[in-house]
Amino acid sequence: MILKKINGWTEENLVKKNEIFEFSESYKEFLDCGKTEREFVKITLKLAEENGFKSALSMKHLKAGDKVFYVNREKNIVLAVIGKKDILEGINFIVSHIDSPRIDLKPNPLYEDLELAYMRTHYYGGIKKYQWASIPLALHGTVIIANGEKKEIIIGEYENDPVFTIPDLLPHLSGKYQGERKAGEVLMGEELQIIVGSMPTTIANPEIKELVKYAVLEKLNEVYGMIEEDFISAEFQLVPAYKAKDVGIDRSLVGAYGQDDRICGYTSLKAILDITEIPDRTAVCYLSDKEETGSNGSTGLQSNYIEYFTGDLISKIKESYSDLYLRKCLWNSKALSSDVNVAMDPLFKSVHESQNAAKLNYGIVVTKYTGARGKSGTNDADAEYVWEIRNLLNSQNIKWQTGELGKVDEGGGGTVAMFLAQAGIKTIDVGPALLAMHSPFEVASKLDLYETYRAYKAFFAMS
User: Fold this and answer.
1) Does the chain have fewer CB atoms within 10 Å around its N or its C terminus?
2) Do residues 356 and 286 make contact, with C-beta atoms less than 8 angstroms apart?
3) Residue 267: which of 449, 61, 16, 72 has the closest Cα?
4) Is the CB of residue 254 less than 8 Å from the CB of residue 444?
5) Same domain, yes or no, for 421 and 281?
6) Which tens digits make up the pLDDT trace of 265-322?
């Protein structure tokens, strides 16, 4: 009769502790190797091919049991397992985003001042800027140099690599300069600059005025063939230069950068790779980009890429195509917008309404609606579909809870759910809760991680 929340570390799950902890080890390894969208896609593609997935664009016809993938500009990847039922009866989509808050280099970043070389940046997504100062940062990126050659660059992740940092102002001098600023302005956007060098070039040339900057360019040219103009045709991201770690004496938590939303990306990927029987409905794992900045652009979910690859699936399965086929398929489809929620922190309980707040170790979180005040900018899942997901989780004995993103007048946040719903797809947000979300070191529960994987696997098998 009464709804009770129960901690997931029950006797049953304590028996499965080794299995749960082992699952988290592969997850941590994946986080360490996939700190950017391009890297996540690259690793996913390798795993997909190892598990029998083939490029859909190389195939003329598809049948039940076929496993295919689509790659969109190296920042989206879609994996599909063709089901037994007519595709017009709908697809089971799990949609995660694989971009995370970070700091990007500006197109013309390099300068010298006080005989120090710095690079200017522009932050990506919602961050607390002060959290990114005085920590080791690694540079990840792709650059197309002048001759058209593509270079993949990672500096700061390997044992003997140098790292980068954003120097903060010492407390002895920060009283007036920073002390009166609001928290969001302790470091301003233009103050997020990384130090990249301090030694001048040894070249004796009176025309070279900025000797340290020139020495940095010399090194980049020597190692990567870069010239300064190449920064314009580059995507460089600064991310924390440390690995995912266990947190706590009992090792029950995972601390890492980028768990929003790669925790959902990994578990949905693992769930579709582990499909061993032909599902009734076609299963699709869609790993998207640009969610942290509004899902815009050709790799964000507001693009028509979902219509593109779904239309291609239909044409190859039915060997015919019409716009009505596409509309019917999407309208009959079901989706989990697999994004994280926020876990209640005992230090900051006042920003939550505890009866509707998620907690660590209480399982995957079903979020009926996200959005900001007044439910604006949200998908509000209908009662029938909420029941369907609730019934699925209960029938599989999956630990789950409900959650909201803070109190009504304080909280709010966006996911991709509303963009899926706009295509007629039944959609609800389902993902684990995190502490310290959007920080350089987010914290997740290993139990919740595992229950998320189980939930996604059950959804893909749902008729």
Assistant:
1) N
2) no
3) 449
4) yes
5) yes
6) 999 999 999 999 999 999 999 999 999 999 999 999 999 999 999 999 999 999 899 9
Do residue 117 and residue 205 come from a single domain? yes
263 and 291 fall within a common domain: yes
Q: Does some domain include residue 213?
A: yes
| Together in a domain, 336 and 354 | yes
Can you give the pLDDT at residue 95?
98
The DSSP H or E segment spanning 392 is: helix 383-395
CB 438 within 8 A of CB 340: no
Task: Outline where 225-359 has alpha helix (H).
Answer: 259-273, 305-318, 323-331
Domain boundary among 240, 268, 295: 240
User: What six digits make up the tokens of 104?
Assistant: 């990007």
Listed residue (142, 153, 327, 156) closest to 241, CA to CA: 156
Q: What tens digit of pLDDT does each residue of 61-70 get?
A: 999 999 999 9
Phi, psi at residue 341, to the nearest 5°?
A: -115, 180
Q: Which domain holds residue 386?
A: 11-100+257-460
- Whether a cis peptide bond, with omega within 30° of 0, leads into 261 is yes
Contact 240, 135 (CB under 8 A): yes
Q: Per the structure, how many domains does the chain have? A: 2
Cα separation, 120 vs 188, in Å, equals 12
Q: What is the rounded CA–CA span in Å between residue 175 and residue 169?
A: 10
92 and 114 share one domain: no
Does this model's pTM top 0.70? My answer is yes
Q: What are the tokens at 199?
A: 């030694």
The domain that holds 236 is classified in CATH as: 2.30.250.10
Give the whole-angstrom CA distance, residue 123 versus residue 114: 24
